[in-house]
Write a structure and sequence with these properties.
This protein is of the alpha+beta class. It folds into 2 domains: 39 residues; 196 residues, Glucose Permease (Domain IIA). Helix content is 22%, strand content 16%. The protein has a 7-stranded antiparallel sheet, covered by helices on one side. The longest helix is centred in the N-terminal third of the chain and has 37 residues.
Length: 249
């Protein structure tokens, strides 16, 4: 390229590099700003960090209901452990723009050892490609006549090679009647194709239905319900409840 041609293109390239650099700075600032802002609206990361770094502290962080309901509440807690991330929680990896849609209950044990139970009577289904998840259809006990679903996931080994779902519920199972307290499987670490480890836990959410009664996408917070009145516990992050979480007084 001739000298005049280099000079002609240099300003354009410089502007392009400057624009790209500014875009990266703005994106990074937005990301870390959201993380900082979100962290100020959640108190979940500290107990979760303690759970994994201080095993001796687990007993004092555990909510263990032993399949008992809180007074006046219809659901049982589906698994014992640290109720870490709460409903509408913006703690990382979530943000205020993409909050957590249910509860993450971290169990004390090895994968395949911590039991998971049906929160309420209903009809269980498991899609053919679900390695780690089941979903149960219920008539809403707090609003009779409305269909809701409870969703349970991460019940498989980290690599997905072993499912920890009970043998009674094979892939493709549909509308199997289950009673409250029925063993569904065991907590695991499976998180799909995500390379990041999620730690042993159960993700549990209460999911709304569409007009036909089918369950909506539970990953969207607007498709889920605050589990607090169903479990009789303060499980909405807005209240910043301390761990362990127990029944409301």
């Amino acid at each position: 390229m001739l000298l005049w041609q280099r000079l002609k293109h240099a300003p354009r390239r410089g502007c392009l590099l400057l624009a790209v650099g500014l875009s990266l700075v703005v994106a990074a600032g937005t990301y870390f700003g959201l993380k900082f802002y979100s962290g100020g609206h959640s108190n979940s990361l500290h107990p979760i960090r303690r759970w994994f770094t201080e095993p001796a502290a687990r007993a004092e962080l555990t909510t263990a209901m032993r399949q008992q309901t809180c007074p006046g509440a219809p659901f049982i807690l589906p698994s014992d452990g640290l109720i870490g991330l709460l409903w509408n929680d913006p703690a990382g990896p979530y943000t205020v723009l993409n909050t957590h849609s249910g509860l993450d209950i971290f169990g004390d044990g090895a994968p395949g050892e911590v039991p998971v139970y049906a929160a309420y009577d209903g009809y269980l289904s498991r899609l053919p490609d679900w390695k780690a998840s089941v979903i149960i259809r219920h008539d809403d006990p707090l609003q009779p006549g409305r269909t809701i679903w409870t969703y349970y996931t991460h019940m498989a080994s980290r690599d997905g090679a072993r499912s920890f779902i009970a043998a009674d519920f094979p892939p493709g199972a549909s509308e199997i009647p289950v009673e409250q307290g029925r063993l569904l499987g065991f907590q695991g670490e499976y998180a799909g194709n995500s390379p990041a480890p999620v730690g042993l836990h159960l993700h549990f959410s209460i999911v709304l239905a569409d007009a036909s009664g089918a369950f909506l996408n539970e990953a969207r917070i607007g498709n889920t319900l605050d589990p607090s009145p169903y479990l009789g516990m303060p499980l909405n992050i807005a209240g910043l409840p301390e761990r362990p979480i127990g029944c409301r007084p």
